[in-house]
Amino acid sequence: MMDKVRVRYAPSPTGHLHIGGARTALFNYLFAKHYNGDFIFRLEDTDIERNIEGGEASQLENLKWLGIIPDESPLNPNPKYAPYRQMERLDIYKKYIDILLEKGYAYKCFCTPEELDAEHERQVAAGIAPKYNRKCCDLTPEEVKAKEEAGLPYTIRVKVPAGKTYEFDDMIRGHVSFESEDIGDWVLIKANGIPTYNFAVVIDDHCMDITHVFRGEEHLSNTPKQLMIYEMLGWSAPTYGHMTLIVNEDRKKLSKRDESIMQFVSQYKEEGYLPDAMFNFMALLGWSPEGEQEIFNHDDLIKEFSEKRLSKSPSMFDKEKLKWVNNRYIKERSLEEVVDLCLPFLSDAYDLSNHSEQWVKDLVAVYHDQLSYGKEIVELVSLFFEDELQIDEEAQEFMKDESIPNTLAVFKSKLEELSDADFTKDNIQACIKATQKEAKAKGKMLYMPIRIATTGIMHGPDLASSIMLLGKEKVLSRL
Ligand code: GLU
Questions:
Q1: Do 55 and 184 share a domain, yes or no?
Q2: Rounded to whole angstroms, how far apart are CA atoms 138 and 142?
Q3: Which of 198, 221, 243 is the last residue of a domain?
Q4: With 70 as the cut, is the pLDDT of residue 168 above it?
Q5: How many CB atoms sit inside 10 A of residue 179's CB?
Q6: Local confidence band at 1 (pLDDT 50, 70, 90 cut-offs)
Q7: Which cofactors is this protein said to need (predicted)?
Q8: Which whole-number Å values give the CA distances from 302 to 25, 49, 371, in the listed order?
Q9: CA of 170 to the centre of ligand 1 (A)
């Protein structure tokens, strides 16, 4: 029987949840849930200078918003595997580093950063691929002891075995191999006593019974380093899947400085994207379902997800597609929910004090089907908050037709007959109909003049609704 699937998302708390991180978390989560396994949230917080205040909480909060709830995390620990923050696991790493030292797989290195830099420069100048020159590899136990007693700082390096090939079958890339010759003796424990990522991750993945790892392709070249530690400790490694890059519309890797795309999940939340739409959209960043269907809810994605359909080529973050997906989800929401989504943006942008709740609801209703994200409502409805009627050139040109003044006069007189309470969409529609008969205007020559005279634009939302929303007073004065 296959072991229970256990996967993890292991961010560094150096920032908020980035699109790339969210996608990594999502794929691990979908894989775990597809196989009834556990999804673990662990924190790689050993780069202490780069950690930010609240980084962990913000990561968890944004994951939760997306609907990704870890089975285990620092806040929800399983005592068998806790703690879940690397800085709280230092004694665990110490135990294994002692084993590696004792077995001669690792050694203490007293080279100073200046010496290492100088050697690096020398190698580069000589055209050799730079790697540690093993100066400290063969220090005698007495020499090591003397240096330690003299209080010299040291790192601990792994002694990379000679002439070995490290290979594995990647769930996404297939067979991958690396030669140990190309890897210098790398640092396991830094001079401050804190382990490096490549060492700690092995200990954690092993001790937490992690079975599969989906992570970004930037970690591919770290894998042989991790495999050598597994081998030295006599453990078997998890199965890896290295996901391809997410690129922007210029096919460039998403970088935090790229302003063409909002990079953080919280920004989408702030702009009024829906979490289930983001979940759906991100699942399509590097994974594709079998058929043509692209809209899947949370549970269906779990059912459909297959590691066999993860893409080998970069996935483009297509903002228009995200809007399309989000619009599909907005359409499915009730009008009340969409009003709740839009209201904060509306009240931020406009003074709503003169408008009833019903008016706001009617306003949002007009755009319910076309809305891509909550904040978009602000520009869509601007016409209802402008006092001055603005008519562009093309529309002015159109209004020169000599039949128009009569059509508008008739329409105006029809509207005047409506009481304030009767100024409803249906009654306004009836006035348009009546104008058609009386003024003998039809089609474009009926609707367009009325639309331009009342809203100033040639194309817009449903005409009768627009007139109702503008209100009787404004419409009559414009007419
Ligand atoms: N902290 C690493 C990262 O965020 C995790 C890498 C891994 O999954 O092994 O990239």
A1: no
A2: 11
A3: 243
A4: yes
A5: 12
A6: low
A7: Zn(2+)
A8: 13, 37, 27
A9: 16
Last residue of a domain, one of 332, 356, 376: 332
| Kind of pairing between the strands at 239-243 and 212-216 | parallel
Residue 356: phi and psi, rounded to 5, are -80, 165
294 and 263, same structural domain?
yes
DSSP annotation string for 157-180: EE-PPTT-EEEEEETTTEEEEEEG
Ligand 1 pocket check for 106: Cβ under 6 Å: no
- Taken as a whole, the chain contains a residue count of 479
Is this prediction's pTM over 0.90? yes
| CATH classification of the domain holding 221 | 3.40.50.620
pLDDT band, very low/low/confident/very high, at 270 (cuts 50, 70, 90)? very high
Do 326 and 416 have their domain in common?
no
Predicted pLDDT at 254: 83
Q: Is residue 223 part of a domain?
A: yes
Residues 106 and 239 in one domain: yes
Contacts (Cβ under 8 Å, ≥6 apart) of 49: none
Q: What is the pLDDT of residue 442?
A: 87
Asked if residue 170 belongs to a domain, the reply is yes
Question: What are the residues whose beta carbons fall under 8 Å from the beta carbon of 133, sequence distance 6 or more?
Answer: 119, 123
pLDDT in tens, 434-456: 999 999 998 999 999 999 999 99
> Which sequence positions are flagged as catalytic?
256
* Integer Cα distance of 373 and 371 in angstroms: 6
Residues 100, 225, single domain; the answer is yes
Taking CA atoms only, the protein residue closest to ligand 1 atom 1 is: 11
Same domain? For 109 and 205 the reply is: yes
% pLDDT > 90, the chain: 95
Spatial contact of 230 and 202, defined as CB atoms under 8 Å apart: yes
Whole-number Å distance, alpha carbon 215 to ligand 1 midpoint, is 7
Q: Which one, of 279, 399, 232, lies nearest residue 33 by Cα?
A: 279
Can you tell me the distance from the alpha carbon of 261 to that of 256, in angstroms, rounded to the nearest whole number? 9
Same domain, 264 and 326: yes
pLDDT band at 255 (very low <50, low <70, confident <90, very high): confident
Shared domain check, 253 and 111 = no
Q: Does residue 45 have its Cβ closer than 6 Å to ligand 1?
A: no
Residue 219 Cβ < 6 Å to ligand 1: yes
**Tally of domains in the chain:** 3
* Among 199, 175, 2, 3, CA closest to 92: 199
Give residues with Cβ within 8 angstroms of 292, minimum separation 6. Answer: none
Q: Is 149 exposed, middle or buried (0-12, 13-18, 19+ CB in 10 A)?
A: exposed
| Contacts of residue 22, Cβ cutoff 8 Å, sequence gap at least 6 | 62, 63, 66, 265, 278, 282
C-alpha of residue 153 to centroid of ligand 1, in Å:
28
Q: Which domain holds residue 235?
A: 89-243
